[in-house]
Each structure stands twice: as C-alpha cells, then as structure tokens.
Amino acid sequence: MALVWMYTSLLIFHFSFLKPSRALRNYPENEVTLLDSMSALGDLGWEAYPPEGWEEISVMDERNTPMRSYQVCNVMEANQNNWLRTRHIARDGAQRVYVEIKFTLRDCNSLPGVPGTCKETFNMFYYESNNPSLWFIKESQYVKIDTIAADESFTQTDVGDRVMKLNTEVRDIGNLSKKGFYLAFQDVGACIALVSVRVFYKRCPAAVLNLARFPDTVTGGDSALVEVHGACVDDSEEVEAPRMYCSADGGWLVPIGRCACRPGFEESKDHCQPCSPGTYKAAASDEYCSKCPPHSHAHQETADECTCESGFYRSRADTPAMACTKPPSAPENPVYTLNDTSVSLEWDPPQDGGGRGDVTYDVRCRKCPGDGRKCSPCGSGVRFLPRQLGLTSPRVLVSDLLADTNYSFSVEAVNGVSDLSPTARQQVTVNITTGQTVSVILKERKSKDSVTLAWHGPDRPDGAIVEYEVIYYEKNQRDQNYTVLKTKATVMTVEGLKPGTTYVFRVRARTDGGYGSYGGEIELETSHEDMLAIGDPNQSTILVVSVAGGVVLLIFLVACFVVSGRHCGYIKAKQDPDEEKVQRGRVKLPGSKTYIHPHTYEDPNQAIRDFAKEIDASCIRIERVIGAGEFGEVCSGRLKLPSKREIYVAIKSLKAGYTEKQRRDFLSEASIMGQFDHPNIIRLEGVVTKCKPVMIITEYMENGSLDTFLKKNDGRFTVIQLVGILRGIASGMKYLSDMSYVHRDLAARNILVNSNLVCKVSDFGLSRVLEDDPEAAYTTRGGKIPIRWTAPEAIAYRKFTSASDVWSYGIVMWEVMSYGERPYWEMSNQDVIKAIDEGYRLPAPMDCPVVLHQLMLNCWEKGRSDRPKFGQIVNTLDKLIRNPSSLKDLANVSTPDLSVGTVDEWLDAIRMGQYKENFASAGYVTLDAILYISLSELSKMGVTLVGHQKKILSGVQSLHAQGSQVQV
Ligand code: ACK
C-alpha cells in the first residue's frame, strides 16, 4: 500500500509540475466544446467503481484554482478492472464528436518490484443515451472507442531526475443520433493520471463569400460534405445560386455561384455600399461604380444611370456608359455635278458630329417653279441612289429629274439622338437648275463625207459653258458604234462620214456644273457626190430641235460664224485644238483624241500648263513617305481644294539640286497623265511648280503596286476577282491605245491598286523605261528594256507599239494568275530571249483557267498583227465574267519535274520550297508519305494559306497522275 501511495504521489507531483493552465486554453474557431474537465470548478461528478479504482484529486493551477483530475495506479495487484464514467454529455446536434485526452502513464519497468500484470494502456468507451441521469451502465453496453497507449511514458533517471511527458490523444465518435452519450475509461492495471478530457465537435463557422452569407454549420456525421446554400448580403442579388460545402474537419469547400451588388451599389469587403454622387453603376455586376460619362451627372447616391445635361441625349441603343450626345451640325461644302437630268451631290461631313459616330444623311428634294410660287416636294418620280434617307456616305445621285427645272436639295445630317432633340435639324441647301437643251439651228451636207452643224446654247446655262458635245452614229447602229466629238465652238464640221449614209446627231452643252440635256435627234443623210460651199440654199437645212430655244434666225448662224472667226470650210475637228474626239467604236475616225507627246511642245512648261492643273501648296498636307521614285520621295497625304471634298493623294516630289532637264523629265509624267481621263488610268490631280519642292499630285491607291499586293494576298482571290483585275487593266490599256499612247513598261509593278481592288495603269514618265525600272536591262542595241515583259520585236529593233503593249499585257495576266510570280522565274534575260525565239512560252500558272492561258498565248504571238487588240481583250474578259462556267476548265497544273526523287525536290518543283522544314518536321520525308496527305494535316503543319494548300494538293494529285513514273 505504501508503494501505491508513493507512485500516486509521484503522479500528482508530476501533474502539478506540469501546471496545465485553463486560462491559456484557446480552442480553434471551428471547434465547439461540449465538455472540458479542466474548466470544471467543482466536482466533475464522474462515477468511479470499484471505489478503490479511479480517484478524483484536486491540484492547483497557476492561479491557485483547484483543478479536477483522476488517477489510478493499482499496479501491484493483478486483475484490475477500474471504470471511470463521465456524466451525460449532450451532443448539441453534432453527429461526430471528438475526445481529446491528456494523460501521463508510468512505464512498468520504472517501477521496481511491480509484477508482470502491470499495464501500460487503458481503454476508452462510450454509451449513447437519451437519458441524462443513468446511474448504471453495464460494461457490455459500452462501445469501445480505442485502447489508449502513451506515446511517451515517464521514467525515473539515474540521477534521480524525473522526466515528465504529457500525452495527448484524440479519438472521434461518428454518427451519433441520441441526445447525448457517456464516456468511460477502463483501467486494467496501469499507473495513469487523466489530466484533462475535452469533448468537442467541429463546425464550419459563419462566413461571407462572393457576397453570400453562409451560416454556422455543424459538420456531417461521417466524412461526407454538408451542402449549404448561402443568402445574398443586403443590396445584392443572386447572379447564380451561391452554395458551399462544409467539410468534416470544419472547413468550407467548393464555393459555387455568387451574388453581385445591385445597380447603384458596389462591393466593399463583404457588403454592398451605395455609389457616391457623381458615380453610377448600371447593372448587378462585380464592377465598381464609375464616374458619370461626359455630359451627364448624378447628384444623389445609389445612381444606376447618370442623367444627361440639358441639350444632350442618350439614344435607346446607347448604354449608360456612353457619353450623352447631341444632334450633329449641318453638312458642309456641298458640291454637285450635273449630268443631263441627273445630279450627283457631294458634301463634307458636319464639323460637329454631336459626339457620335453614327451620322447619316437625309436628302430632301423640292421643285421650285421660280415664278414666285412656292417650292413643292419633288414627289416619287425622282430617284435617289443609293437611297434618299439614311445615307451613310456623304454623296447621292439624284436622277429622273425634269430638264430645265429649278430644284432645291436640302441635306440634313442625322445621328442617333436627332429624333430626341426638339430643335430643328441643321441642313445645307443646294439650288440647281437641271440641264437645258441646245438648239441645233443648222445642218448642212458639206460634202459626200462631211456634215456641218451649228447650234446655240441654253438660254440660262447653269454656269459658264465649258464645251459642247456632239454625238453621232449611223442610223440604227447606235449600239455598235457611236462617236463623241467635243468643241468649244457652236459650229462643227464632222468629217470622215460614209457617202450616202443617214446619220443621227445630238448636241449637248457642258457647263461648270456638269452636262446639260441632249437636244432632239437630227437625222441627215450624206450625199453621194461632193457638195458645193455653204450657203447654197438647196443644200442647207435650218432646223430647230430645241425645246428651250427661242426664235432662231439664219442671221444668228451667220453671226455665230463671224464671232467664231472661222470659215466653215476651215472647221475640221482634227485640226481644232479645242475639239477632241473620243471614239467608242471600232472605226477610228479622223479627229479622235490622240495623246500629245510633251516633246512636241517647244516650251515644255506650256505642256504642263495645258494638261495639268497648278495646285496651291497650302492645299496639300503631306502625311508619310510611302516609297522612293526616280526623282525623289513618294509620299501620301491629303488634298483639300476650295469647295471640294478633302481627298487622299500620292505626292511625288522632285528632290533638290535638280537640273532643268530633270525638272522637265519629272514634269513630263504629269503632262502625259493629265491628258488621260479613265477609271483604269491613275488620275492626275495637279502639279505644284510655283514653289519648291516641285510636286506631282495623283489620286491615292491604298493597296500600292499590284505585284506586291498579289504576293501579299497569295491564293486569296476567286478566279472571277482575278479576271476583274485583268479586265480593269485591259480597259485602261484600251483607252491608252485608242489615244495612240504606247506604254512600253506595262508590268504588275506599274499597276496600282486601290481599296476597292480597282487597278489603274501608272508610271508614265518619259525617262522611266530607261532609268526608273529596276527590271530594265541594256540590250545589244544599247536601249534599256524590261526584257521579260517586252515583245521580241521591241527588244530586237525597238518596235514599240500597242501590239507590243499587248505582249506585256499577256505577261501581266500571267503575273496576276500566279499571284506575283516572277515571269520565267530565275532564268537569265539572255535565256528568256533565246527561249522565246525558239517558241517557248510561259506555262499556265497553277489553277489558271484554260481560256485565260489561251488568251495569254494569243498575246504572245510572234507576229504582232496576230495578237488581239486591247478592245478585243476587254470583250473576251467581259464574256468570261458574264459566263463564269467558261472558267471552270483549268489548264493542266504546271507539271512538276517527273524526275523528282525527294520531298524537297518535289516542293521546289511545285514552287513551294518554303515549306521544306514544315514537311520534314511533320515526318513527311518520302514521296510515298505525301501521296495521301490531307488538308487538315497541311494546316496542322503550318501551311495555312488557302492558295498554298491548293498548290500543294494539286501537286500531290499530279504525283498520283504520274503514278508508276514516280520513284517512291
Ligand atoms: O508598291 P508601292 O507601295 O506602290 O510602292 C511604290 C512607291 O510608291 C514608289 O513608287 C507607291 N505609289 C506610287 N504612286 C502611288 C499612288 N498613287 N498611290 C499609292 N501608292 C503609290 C508605289
């Protein structure tokens, strides 16, 4: 017994030595304590039996407060079975509880003289019950939780020092369902001090996440997660139902869904706060309140939209984030061009678009009798192209107007808020008098092949008369062949007519404002014999076909001749510099407008004055350098001429330090270009010669030169688009050849492309073929010629004609169809000359329709008279465009060299050598490997251009076609 006491005292000693502190017990936030023996102030009230087993003792903590604990140490006697049972512990809704015990345990070896029955473990049990005051529970009713062993027992050391170790063990009890439970500790012969028992359960503490509030949640009984639905915090709304899972160890997992602060509120930590004045938030979103957009305000808190300032509006389609805007100011600088009874109106956009980008234009038309009566709406007979209201571009074509009538057109600029403003729309008005007819007063058979006409102009011309246009054609032949003559005089002798043939003539005036209406048709038959001079009353006929003409007298005719200072017999269209002739038919009649070589002028400056408009340098704004020309830089910029729209232009300048000859040569391009007026010829806007640098201003072509453009867009166009490109170039060349102008350097590099894919022939400098063209090479005869583009007769003996331009055109066709491939590839100039002489011609480019290659071959006929004329080329291309199925037949794919043995050689042969590495790294190293390559594989290996994919796949096809011949 004395020994037992001694051991027990040792336990107590060590227990007090440990000084467990109640005050220091801070439990984790997610644990709820159901029982803590250390915090009990009085008796714990636990049952111990038999009475000589577990013993309750009191020790003092660091504050000298008694603390309860139990100990047992009946190690000297065998067959121990000592039970200690707690009071009923209410489970408080928890399904799983944890029991944390702290204890010390003596090592049996450290107790001298104890028998072998000494134990070093004890058992822990529980019993679930709804009854909180059971006084007895049978041992067999308990459920065992575990056998508890010490991690550390304590041992007396040699020096008499005792090392004390406090063990802590935690066990859990799951799936509790009754009101509570009892815990029990069974000792079977160990020396134990049970220092503390704490029973707790875990919960997920209340939390706010994604603006959703989640309540305190007790963890699940087994290890399953507990799904919890959150509630949105004040002033927030559910974006997606918020949910989270409470895990068994008291942590929140897997947040799903969220709430967002409602309009007018923004998130601040875990709540929503009102938007401050001057800010707003329009939607329930994660965003913060934003400053009010321009021209709007929010005086109060919680604004979900800012109110527009007075005079500013928000259209229904505008979001609250957009600035408030106002209606636009009026359109500006209206200009118009009259053509008979059509008028083309253009204007500048309003200075102030009201802060919006959706400005459109409405055009109102009124007819004004001009006799003091009020103007009235034009009615539905007038046509507007593209439309009358809601025009997106600042231009409209108005047609089907009445001749010789006053019209007033008002153009209003409208934007998305125009309808919201109570003020009247701002507008600009143009008054126009439509074309007046010309009265033809004399028609006279002059000779068997000429006729003289005289007329007087409109009574009230719309601006100064610039010239008259006479159109004539053989009766009933108008569709095939008609001729237009222009003159500044009011009398004209038309020559070169067929004897004994009836012609129809019509005359109209052109004023500053545009073309007037044609007068009525005049029919006149040429005689079979030469006539005598004018004045023979038997030969002359006086006829008034005007609707507007007044009384017409023969005297007028005479006066007219006197004023014009011309004798009738002297009037020959081809000799009068004021007259020009544009032929639109097959027969080239005398008097056609021909190109005048600037060198035929004694004073080259006169040529410039005659053909190019002088522009004030202040109207030009140079923006950036786009290239280098022979004489200096080429820049792009803008040109704003008074009462004209601002346009983009290209500006070629003459570099400083030039000689007089260089200046002449530089400006010669403008004197040539200025003579042309065709949609497929680059248009000259004017020149700057009065100040330095001297400049040539042309229209701006957004896509630069055709060769580079094609290379950049390899494979991107349809065949019809390519034919459209070719048609444009051929049409421009037809115009030049009709004017007897020979280009000499027609090549894709000298064609410019605008943003609408319209191609225009350019590069008209006099010295350009000699100096400017990097392709030009010296021939044996000393001339510098772009060999690959030039016809053999031009290379051999400088025979440059429109037929040699046709040869070059064939090469341009080949360049276009092969997307900018170099003609004859890397063959030397000498080899090209030799090959052409021996009859070799370029093969059809990949995927080129047979008809187009045939047309190329026709252009490359050795005999120049066997080549088609540009007019025929245009007709052929027009037919192809009208009948696209004729383009379906593709010429044979340019066959790769049959002797290819490797993939690299094959890629070179189909001119796709740039993809060698792609093929090699994708594992295509033998020809048989590529025989079944697919489009998607090509894309995967980085061949993404459609044109290149096509080339490669047709190359594969030709490999198939060669079949057995290919060494695989
Ligand atoms: O191929 P590009 O971009 O097109 O580079 C050359 C460069 O200037 C030197 O001639 C470009 N260029 C020439 N005239 C014009 C023009 N009217 N519009 C746009 N680019 C032009 C040409």
TrEMBL record:
**Keyword Cell membrane annotated:** yes
Which branch of life, at top level? Answer: Eukaryota
Supply the source organism for this entry. Answer: Electrophorus electricus (Electric eel)
The protein's name in its UniProt record: receptor protein-tyrosine kinase
User: SMART domains in the record, alphabetically?
Assistant: EPH_lbd, Ephrin_rec_like, FN3, SAM, TyrKc
User: Has the keyword ATP-binding been applied to this entry?
Assistant: yes
Looking up PANTHER family in the UniProt record yields: EPH RECEPTOR A5 (PTHR46877), RECEPTOR PROTEIN-TYROSINE KINASE (PTHR46877:SF8)
Which keywords label this protein?
A: ATP-binding, Cell membrane, Disulfide bond, Glycoprotein, Kinase, Membrane, Nucleotide-binding, Phosphoprotein, Receptor, Repeat, Signal, Transferase, Transmembrane, Transmembrane helix, Tyrosine-protein kinase
Q: What does the record give as EC number?
A: 2.7.10.1
Q: Which residues form the Protein kinase domain?
A: 620-881
- Where exactly are the transmembrane stretches of this chain? 542-564
Any one GO biological process: axon guidance
Every Eph LBD domain range: 31-209
Instruction: Spell out the PROSITE patterns in the cross-references.
Output: EPH_LBD (PS51550), FN3 (PS50853), PROTEIN_KINASE_ATP (PS00107), PROTEIN_KINASE_DOM (PS50011), PROTEIN_KINASE_TYR (PS00109), RECEPTOR_TYR_KIN_V_1 (PS00790), RECEPTOR_TYR_KIN_V_2 (PS00791), SAM_DOMAIN (PS50105)
Drop me one GO molecular function for this one: transmembrane-ephrin receptor activity
Q: Which InterPro entries match?
A: Eph_TM, Ephrin_rcpt_lig-bd_dom, Ephrin_rcpt_TKs, FN3_dom, FN3_sf, Galactose-bd-like_sf, Growth_fac_rcpt_cys_sf, Ig-like_fold
Got any disulfides in this one, which pairs? C73-C191, C108-C118
Sites where the protein binds ATP: I626, G627, A628, G629, E630, F631, G632, E633, V634, K652
SAM domain sequence ranges? 898-962
Name its cellular compartments.
Answer: Cell membrane
A Gene Ontology cellular component where this protein is annotated is: plasma membrane
Per UniProt, what is the membrane topology?
Answer: Single-pass type I membrane protein
